[in-house]
Fold:
Amino acid sequence: MEKKEDVYRTVTKPSPEILYKDRKSKFYAQIHPIASEDDVKPIVEELRKKYHTANHVCYAWQLGTENPMYRANDDGEPNNSAGMPIYGQIQSFDVTNVLITVTRIFGGTKLGVGGLIQAYKTAAQMALENAKIVKKTIKAKFRLQFGYPEMDKVMRIIKQKNLNIVSQKMELDCELVISVRMTESEETLQIFDEMQNVEISQLD
Structure:
């Protein structure tokens, strides 16, 4: 049974760009996977170059699972008429580690604040509906340190519990970095903690 806190929804690659039109204004919307806030600026700058006649590149992003961070940017549109409606769709589709951009090319007719909110919301929704949303498991990482005599029993548990080895260093002593589902982290910590001559520490 999947536990809610163990799994999150995201995208692994940018979605196809969709076009939404309202009274001759064009809204190009796309969803992008991001790993940190630093990923946002280059994507937005790239869109400004691509659509050099665009009046606004509005966006919203969210990162993290337990205490997610988010930002919404109206890029010159009236306050909260663009970024927040886009962010509302991120919440509605329950996705994280994503950036949604909506690039507007003005068509000559003002839409009014209500019209803008609707247009940005709809464009973001269409981008999400066209994206391939995947489920990912939240993992915890641990470092194991032990001598060669302990190798067999450590490896046996890793195999039994189907744990994932992220990296290994075999020098005078052995060091493994393993990752486990967040919901199994306490049990894993306890198992290795009770083994003699094996040190386990959780990594950020």
Remarks:
- The mean pLDDT is 91.
- Helices lie at 40-50, 83-92, 112-130, 151-160, 185-193.
- The chain has five helices and eleven strands.
